[in-house]
C-alpha cells in the first residue's frame, strides 16, 4: 500500500513513523514533508494547500490512502476533491471541517445540542461587540476569531481596554482578514485542559489515548500561547470523567452532526477543560493535535494504517484498537523568540547519539548544504515512552542535553501536572 501524508510538521512526522511501521505500507510519501520524514519516505514539493496538485500526485502514484495533517486543506475541501476523483482519503469533508474552521458554527451547534461548553456571544461588527462591555462586562474573557487563523486567533482579554483593542484589531482593522470577520466571545473557564481524540466514520467511534498539551511558552503555564510546547499521554483521569466525556460530549456530538446532515469521518479532536462543573468543550478540531499526536501514536499497539483505512472505507466497526500500558512525553525544542519573531537557519548539532528508544520527530527543520538547520518556530520534538511518566520525563530531558542549536528553548516542566495528578490519585 502507498500512503500520502499531507503536511510537514511534527504531527506529520509522527504519522509517517507510525504508518511506516505497518506491514501493509510499502511506501510513504509526504507533501511537503520534512527532513525527518525523508529518512523513511519520499518528500514531494507540493504545498499542503495545493489541492489540485495533491490530487494529481495521488492519481499519478496510485496512492491507496491519503492522510491529512493540518486543518487548512480540510477546510478548503481536499476530502471533497479526492472523493470526487475516487481517491481514498482520511479526514472530514469541507462541511464537517466547519467544526474547527467556523467557531461560531461550532458554538451554536454545541448550544443547540446541549454539549457542555462555555457561555458565548457572536459578534460581526465592532458596534455589536461593544454591547458586551455594556451588558455582561465580565473579565477575563476569551475572544476568538471565528475562522482559521493559524493558531493566532485566540485572545485572553483581562479588562475592558484590552477587549476594545482586540475588537478594534479584528472587526475594524481586519488584522486577521476573513478569519476575524466574525468573533466569538466566550466565558473564561478554569481547570486542567485535556485533549481527547476519536476516530470515527460517522457511525462507529474508536477512542485514542487522551493527552495534555502545554500551550503556554513558559513553565507553570505562564507567558503567551504557542502552538504547543510539549505533551504527555495518557491524561490521568477517572471513570466518572471518562463516562461524561464519552456519553455527554463525544457520542452526542457525532450523532448530532449526523442529525445536521454532517457525516463526519476522520479524527475528531475535542479540546476540553475539566472544570468544577465537569468537562466542557473549549474547541473541536477536525484533525490530529500537534504535539499530542507525537505522544499518542507511540502508545498504540501495532498497525495504525488499518484503522485509518477503515475510517475512509466506513467500516470502523471492524476495528479493535489496543493501547499500550505505557506513558509518553514530548518536549518541543523551539527557536529563540518563538512564538513571535524568531531566527532560523541555525545549525542543529547532536553532541552524542540519541538513545535508540528515543523518538525524534522533526517539525521546523531543513537541509542546507548537507547540514540540518532550523526552519521554523517549533523545530524538533523529543519523545520518550516508558512505564511511568517520571522516568519518561527524566529520559526526555537527558536526551535533550545531547541536542544543540543557537537559541534553543524548551519548557522544563512538561508532564508535571500529570505526575501531580497521579500522586494525588495514589494518596486517595
Ligand atoms: N495542540 C494544539 C493543536 O493541535 O491545535
From TrEMBL:
It is an enzyme of class 6 (ligase). Residues 107-313 form the ATP-grasp domain. The keyword ATP-binding applies. One of its GO terms (molecular function) is phosphoribosylamine-glycine ligase activity. Pathway: Purine metabolism; IMP biosynthesis via de novo pathway; N(1)-(5-phospho-D-ribosyl)glycinamide from 5-phospho-alpha-D-ribose 1-diphosphate: step 2/2. Its EC number is 6.3.4.13. One of its GO terms (biological process) is 'de novo' IMP biosynthetic process. It catalyses: 5-phospho-beta-D-ribosylamine + glycine + ATP = N(1)-(5-phospho-beta-D-ribosyl)glycinamide + ADP + phosphate + H(+). Its cofactor is Mn(2+); Mg(2+). Keywords: ATP-binding, Ligase, Manganese, Metal-binding, Nucleotide-binding, Purine biosynthesis. PANTHER family: PHOSPHORIBOSYLAMINE--GLYCINE LIGASE (PTHR43472), PHOSPHORIBOSYLAMINE--GLYCINE LIGASE, CHLOROPLASTIC (PTHR43472:SF1). Belongs to the GARS family. This is Phosphoribosylamine--glycine ligase. It comes from candidate division WOR-3 bacterium 4484_100. The gene is purD.
